[in-house]
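hey all, quick one before standup. I had two proteins in the batch that finished overnight and I want to keep them in one place so we stop losing track of which output belongs to which input. First protein below, input sequence then structure tokens straight from the run.
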Amino acid sequence: MARLTPAVLRTLDILELFLDDGAPLSAPDVVRKTGLPRTSVHELLATLVARDYLQKDDVSGTFRLGVRLLHLGNAYSARFDMLSAANDVARELAERSGETVSVALLEGGDVFYLAKIESRDNLRLPSSIGQRLPASVTGLGKALLAYASPQSLATRFLDPDNLPRMTQNSIGTLAELEVELQRIRERGVAFENEESTPNIRCVAAPVRDGTGAVVAAISMSVPVARWQQYPEEIWIGLVLEGAQHFSSLLGFSVSPQGQGAGSAGKSEIP
């Protein structure tokens, strides 16, 4: 287990004092309740005030929770809003396509699966809700990496010549991945060609929040034999429509000019 940082623990102990009833506390109150040295308490309180995690009343000298914690709480709540939207959109897209639909977030060099609706065929895929897979071998991961900071790629993949592999089709080097990511930015969708699971193709698209930032991705996983039955534009159109709907639920406004392939009308699987 990693060593815990004493200063961080003390800071959290102070913040958690305000969880009981939210009443203001003075510095002597904090010293008494935590048992921390007076000097340490004053330094930690001053730091929390400077970063807006606490507010100080200059008249009474007491402290209360600051606005920065409200921002963190809103960000935490937004994740639950995203989860609700992810399940709704994934279910709708799975019903329309008959295929397995997944939603994931980017965490380091991995994708974290937030939602998944199985196809009628109940495909055997290595992914499940709450699981992580290497981003470079999945359509979801590549759709997210394409819009991540270029500088961050090196930190996400510390061995650029040996990226994680799950099949013989997995991309093996960071240089190859960067070429693929450029194609994804140009086309607006990412593909996976049996890179995490044999005999499975995948198409994925990025999902944007109200600021326009890419915060998630949505994908459809399709058996190769079924993929080949329909034009590629059908699969692209379906996942783009799902991504656009998801983005709109998160507050992103899609202009008619920026909707991309498949947006002229609803794509359907016969």
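OK second protein, same deal, sequence then tokens:
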Amino acid sequence: MTGKKRTSDPIIATLSILGFVLFWSVLAELRSDPRILPGPFLVAKTIWAEAVTGALWMHVGATLVRVSIAFILAMTIGTALGVLLGRSRILDRWADPWVVIFLNIPALVVIVLCYLWIGLNETAAITAVTLNKAAMVLVNMREGARVMDPHLEEMSRIYRFSRLQWAQHLLLPQLAPYLAAAARNGLAVIWKIVLVVEFLGRSSGVGFQIHLKFQLFDIPGVMAYAFSFVAIMLVIDYFAIQPMERRSALWRLNEQ
């Protein structure tokens, strides 16, 4: 059964993407104006042209670096605080209003304030993205920490688990599904916020290029950079996030 699933998954994913391209092509044909809605062939041609000049690789690379740094920081901070609040009712009650505040501050406000307070630099850009996403990760991981099995906690005390043993055999298996979900949602949200950060105050990156193409009303260029990064996110999701989700589910079953 597992072998059939592994064999069919790439086929289903490929057919699904082809279906999206077909849907896009039909819409472009119905619109009949490539200046408003360019078809897949024109966007692919634009991607190739940008790649040949080297501009695509430079700007996509800059965005990937920002996404990676912000993702690691947000996941680390959010996970640590989420577990802490989830395991301490007193701290959770005091910190809950703070969490709600950070969850509801618009990303645009955080970005603008970071640029005003820190300056138009990489530190401000990464800080803005990290602050926006860390609260979301915190909420996810806090929920996971709240529902940890108390019987397993009692067993770890009886057998006198060390902190390392407790984390390896009790904490991580129970939090793994929440961590995988936070990672998937985190990537989807972070790269979008990074684009806004680049749009507003960076001189490189996919967001900067989209801003430039927007000013020139170059819709094929806008879509070329957007879909280039979406393609990279699809690859990361399929080859990194989804396997992590499957491993986390198996890991939890094996540990239990």
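Flagging for whoever picks this up: The chain has a mean pLDDT of 85. The chain has ten helices and no strands.
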